[in-house]
Amino acid sequence: MKKIVFLTGAGISAESGISTFRYANGLWEGHDIMAVASYDGFLKNPELVLDFYNIRRRQLLTVKPNLAHQLITNLQEKYEVRIITQNVDDLHERAGNSNVIHLHGELLKSRSVVNENLVYECFEDILITSKNNLGHQLRPHIVWFGEAVPEMENAIIHIEKADIIVIVGTSLQVYPAAGLIDFARNNALIFYIDQNPAETKHYNKDINVIAKKATEGMLELYELLKNL
User: Fold this and answer.
1) CB 194 within 8 A of CB 168
2) 8 Å CB contact between 67 and 219
3) Which of 62, 72, 139, 140 lies in the 20 to 30 Å Cα band around 203?
4) What pTM was estimated for this model as a whole?
5) What are phi and psi of 216, to 5 degrees?
């Protein structure tokens, strides 16, 4: 069974109604990015940061996986499928995918500010009064700017072993995730689905670009992959 690795970004979740991450203007839905997505921002104004993610968590619980998520699930019948996602939502899992690596954390989890290994399921708001049983303040289980990406080495291992790599809905601008393609085998088939695909020449890889939104692009690619 061939191994296919999907590298997914905000574009695949956008069609489910989740807002994409806007980096170009330095703002994320009206907030300075570093104010809501860094540990320094959390220390300066924890209520703002917690509320920012509480709103996103509430929204996540109201949306559903879309066709692109489902088509990836369907490919599990023919391929060994692994998903490496930059998204913090659980839409891949809800669509039926169990082999998901979350590079940037998970919105439906919280963790201790004292011990990052103390991670908990989280479906409610995190407040400044939210503590674990050790009295540690809880924070979103999100990889903020300046923090290490714990799953990066695991992701590289799967990229190195992939027969087929499919990039869906990502700008290929956020590092270290954007550098994963460098670890692909020379004979790996690589597809890139995005409505506004980034330049790929600098990767020195043969990348097949499908300039469509995630659902349309996955429909096209699904027909190809199921017949390979």
Assistant:
1) yes
2) yes
3) 72
4) 0.92
5) -65, -45
The pLDDT assigned to 86 comes to 93
Give me the amino acid identity at 197.
Answer: P
Give the domain ranges of the chain: 1-18+65-104+149-228, 19-62+105-142
Encoded tokens for 37: 């997505």
Angstrom distance (rounded) from CA 97 to CA 72: 8
> If DSSP codes are grouped into helix, strand and coil, which group holds residue 165?
strand
Which CATH class name applies to 19-62+105-142?
alpha beta
Query: What pLDDT is attached to residue 172?
Result: 74
Alpha-carbon dihedral sign for residues 161, 163, 168, 173: positive
Tell me which residues of the chain have a pLDDT lower than 70. Answer: 20-30, 174-175, 177, 202
* CA-CA-CA-CA dihedral for 104, 182, 197, 148, to nearest 10: 20
Q: Which two tokens stand for residue 202?
A: 């600098």
Please report the beta strands in the chain, taking only residues with DSSP state E, as ranges in sequence order: 3-8, 27-28, 31-32, 80-85, 100-102, 105-112, 119-121, 138-142, 164-168, 189-193, 207-210
Q: How far apart are alpha carbons 79 and 75 in whole angstroms?
A: 6
The residues annotated as belonging to the active site are 104
Of the chain, the percentage scoring pLDDT greater than 70 comes to 93
Match 């082999």 to its residue by tokens. Answer: 99
